[in-house]
Amino acid sequence: MKADRVFRALANKHRLGILFWLQNPRAHFPPQIAGDLVRDGVCGCLIAEKLRVSHPTASEHLKVLSQAGLIRGKRIKQWTFYKRDENAIRKIKKTVFPNV
Questions:
Q1: pTM
Q2: Number of independent structural domains in the chain
Q3: 48: domain range?
Q4: 64 and 53 in contact (C-beta within 8 Å)?
């Protein structure tokens, strides 16, 4: 785990929002044409729409989260779908908050 990448990723309200939404994607995103919201993740296009930012801006936020190990991307056709990496998040929590 690269702590600097994790803290950088968590230091932005848009990226925190993405992590929150991906925790329960069915509650925060409409059904997708391709890919299951829970099994495959959420299409980057839907994340950009929800953030109300351009696709390149959303892609940068998703890249930072991915480099920090907080989310994983999965290609389906021409789209990339994102979901939280719950195992990595648990490890990060244990490292940052060992007594909780």
A1: 0.91
A2: 1
A3: 3-96
A4: no
